[in-house]
Structure formats: structure tokens, C-alpha cells
Amino acid sequence: MQYLVSVINDTSDLATTDEMAAIDVFNEGLQAQGHWVFAGGLAAPGTATVIDNRGEAALFTDGPFVESKEYIVGFWVIEAADLDVALKLAAEGSKACNRKVEVRPFL
Amino acid sequence: MSRTDVPEAITEAHREEWARVVASLTRRFGDLDIAEEAAAEAFAAAVARWPADGVPPSPGAWLTTTANRKAIDRIRRENKRDDKQKEAQLLYDNDPPGPPGAIGDERLRLIFTCCHPALAMETRVALTLRMVAGLTVPEIARAFLVQETAMEKRITRAKAKIKAARIPYRVPSAEDLQARVSGVLAVLFLVFNEGYLATGSGTDPVRHDLTAEAIRLTRLIRALMPEDGEVAGLLALMLLTEARRTARVSASGALVTLAEQDRGTWDTALIAEGHQLVRERLAAAAAGIAPGRYQILAAINAVHTSAPDVRATDWSQILALYDQLARLDSSPIVALNRAIAVAELDGPQVGLAAIDRLEDELSGYHLYHATRADLLRRLGRNQKSREAYDKAIELAGNTAEVAYLTRRRDQLG
User: Fold this and answer.
1) Quick check: is B77 in a domain?
2) Domains in chain B: how many in total?
3) Is B378 a domain residue?
């Protein structure tokens, strides 16, 4: 079972060196215990482009699809047996990156 | 068994067996939805057949067998449609079957799943009342004053989340158990309190159906986890509160405060049972097991219910218990109740000073104003008292409390 753990940023601050170091430790733990699937950090929402090609020609729009004070700044995809395991890992992840996180199951 | 006893037998089977049937089906088929539907169909079959066929020798076994058959029928029907998808949606469970006896009881898994922290509190309440207590969706909707369709949606969404997010169907591991048990107790306490202090202008002031259901569920958890002190504490707290239920509302529907209640109408059997539980926990505390908040609240209620009249109340012991509670729980509500004990011991002036310090946190809470109003009245400050009663009446949601506060205000003259 895979879960998306989204990291939610509610300030414009980037991760500090301490936070980056804690994230590295957390990532190593995920890999060692077989929970790691993928992870990544994202550039600011202002760098996003929205594409809609449902019509006749592709439409490109500058900016994120939803403007919000809180936005996703990074994510993990983890492998976990059930939600209890996923929540425990997400709680460790939240501590490591010093941000709120959201857990959402893959179908 | 005569035919006239059949409806009674069905009611009893529903009370005793519903959770067991749902739990064992959930375990077997890995799906709350199938379990709930099949259990409901099995009870409908009992209603249809027992009057003619007679009550089976083991109603529980009959219901489980019937429900299993209904579930298998449904799965066969659905498997014809979408085999693979059904397979993928089965609830996850990697636990070996537990040993027979308390902690291995299937019903505990059901309770912990329904009270999972990933579900919203109101959802946990609804799901627990449906799956564990066996209340129907219309009953639950009525109890919480929401539309039936909205309640149905809430329960359906919860079941879908449990399935999609793979909320496990098991008793939490030892390291998580305490936190998860207190989550379950919070759900039961909320059900009890909603019954005890029902809100809404059109509702009965005390919803006995809800208090009775909360007590029944807490008794069940107590039977399943007899070693847990907080479970015992919560059960004692509920019993000692429920014992005063009839004395608490007057014939005209107004709240009767503890001080004014006719203590002769208290339920002595419930009080005896509650006191027995409190004594059991006091013995545990004496052996060095620190009591949690429900045990302390139960002890406070035991002191109240031990006094033959209000003047005989041991307020110094109550204050000591509130001091103990305040160390566990720094909430302003605890501080407010502690201040009431202070007022009884050291006089209304001292109590009022303690309460006034809570204004910032509690100015939106009707009992803050009601307590102030009472102390101001005892100090002869009628104008200030009246203002506080007005504020309390404006904020109170329970009809009996409003009636009481209004009477008190109007007595100020």
C-alpha cells in the first residue's frame, strides 16, 4: 500500500540547514526500513504553469491552479502496511521537516 | 419460550449480539459495509422468522450464521461484476487471530477501528453508535439533530475512508494502546454528555437513550479491558452521574442543582456500583498506579454521592481532588470547578476572585457566568448577579438549564 505524504508550507521560509539534516536522517530511515518509494522538494508555487489541453488547443496559464497561503512544498511517497504505519512515519516526517504534512492513500 | 416473548428475545439479541455479529463479519470479510448490511439483514430475518419458527436455542449463533450467509450472497453477486476491485478493497488485517478472552474479542477491534484518530470526532461517534451499539441511522441522526441523509453520508464517507486509506482492523499495539483507549473513552464520554446535557431548544433536557447507550458501551469496554483504570473510572463517573438523572430535572423541566436535589430519589444501586469501582481504583492508586482524569472525576462524584445532604459534603476532599486533576489537565473548566469548591470552603468572595481570573478564557461559556451569578447573589450584589444570569441564559443551550437560570434570576427581586 502506498501513501502520498505532502509537506505543507504555511510560510515563505525555505528549509533551514538543520531541517535539511533532519530530513536526510528521516529519509535514510525510510530507505533502511523499506518504506521509501520516492521523495522530492518543489520550487515555489509561483513557478508553476497550468496546462489545459481538453479543448482544441492547449492553454497555458501562469501560476498554481489554486492560490493559497498554504501550499505543497515537497512530498514523500511511502510504502506502508496500513494507515497506522503511515501515520507514524508521517509524524516522524513532520518533525523532521518541521512542517505540517498530509497523508493520502493511493488507489 | 412463548410467542409473546419473541419481540423481547429479538430486542435482547440485538443488544447482546449486534456488535459481535458485525465484528466477526468484518473480520471474516474485511469490509465494514458488508458486515453492517449483512448483520442488519440477519436481524430482519430474525424478526420475520422467529415468531413462526420460535427463538433458536443459541440466538447469537443463528444470527452469525444467517449474517454470514447474507454476506456471502452479496459478495457472490458483486464478484460477478467486479472481481478484482472487490479483492483490492478488502480491509487489511495482518494480525494472527487473538487468543479467546478479553483482549482478543473481535468487538474490541471494531471499537478501535470506529474510534480511529484519523476520523473526525463526530464521525467516530456516529460510526461507533452504528457499528458497535447497533443504533439505526435515523436514530443517530435524531440524537444529534442532523438530517438523516447527512448522517447517512457521514457514515458512508467514514466507511469509504477506512477502506481506501486502509485503517487497520485490529487492537493497537501496546505502545499506542493507552492513547487509543483514551480516544475511545472520549467518544463514549461525548455520547454520554450529549445525552446528559442535550443541546437544542426543542429537545428533552436529558436524553436517556444516549446516556444509557454510552453506559452500555462503556460496560462492554470494561468487560473487554478489565485492567484499564480509566475505563473503570469513566464507567464509575457515568454511573454516579446517571444515578442522579431523575433528581436533576424538576417536573416543570428546570434543572435542579446538586445542592437542591432530593437525594432520596438517587438510584442507590447505580451509586453502589459506582462507589465500588471508585474503591477499586483508590486501591490501585494506593498501590502506586497514578489515576487519570476519569478516575479523579469519578472520585469527586463519589464524594458528592456519599454525602446524605449538601451540608455534609466533604469540600476539602473535593478541593484536593480538583488540585490533583488540575495537575493533569490545565483547562480553565477544571479551574472553574475547582473555584466552586474554593467558594464552599473559603467563602464566595475568595471563590469569585478565583473565577474572575478565568474571564479571558471562559467568557463564552455559560457555566462561567452561571457560577459568577450564583456567587454574586450570595454576596448580595444583585445587579451584577442579574447581569451574569442574563449572560448565562443567552449562552446556555440546554432547556432545563435555561429554565433554572431564568428562575434564579427572577428570584433576585
Assistant:
1) yes
2) 1
3) no
Q: pTM of the prediction?
A: 0.83
pLDDT in tens, A50-64: 999 999 999 999 988
Which chain B residue is nearest to residue A104, measuring alpha carbons? B165
CATH number at residue A72: 3.30.70.1060
C-alpha angle B154-B159-B160 in degrees, rounded to nearest 5: 95
What is the distance, to the nearest Å, from the Cα of residue A20 to the centroid of all Cα atoms in its chain?
14
Residue A5, beta-bridge partner list = A76, A103
What pLDDT is stored for residue B97 in this prediction? 46
- Can you give the CATH number for the domain in which B29 is found? 1.10.1740
Contact predicate B176/B110, CB 8 Å: no
B166, B175, B177, best to mutate vs chain A, most A CBs in 10 Å: B166
Q: ipTM of the predicted structure?
A: 0.88
Least CA distance to B170: which residue of chain A? A84
Chain A residues within 8 A of B117 when measuring between CB atoms? 87
Give contacts of A105 with chain B, Cβ < 8 Å: 164-166
Please indicate, yes or no, if residue B15 is contained in any of the structural domains: yes
Task: Find chain B residues with C-beta within 8 A of A104's C-beta.
Answer: 165
Domain range for B41 is: 3-90
Q: How many CA atoms lie within 13 A of A61 on its CB side?
A: 11
For B59-86, how does the pLDDT look when each residue is reduced to its tens digit (9 = 90+)? 999 999 999 999 999 988 887 766 555 5
pLDDT of res. B102: 43
User: What is the domain count for chain A?
Assistant: 1
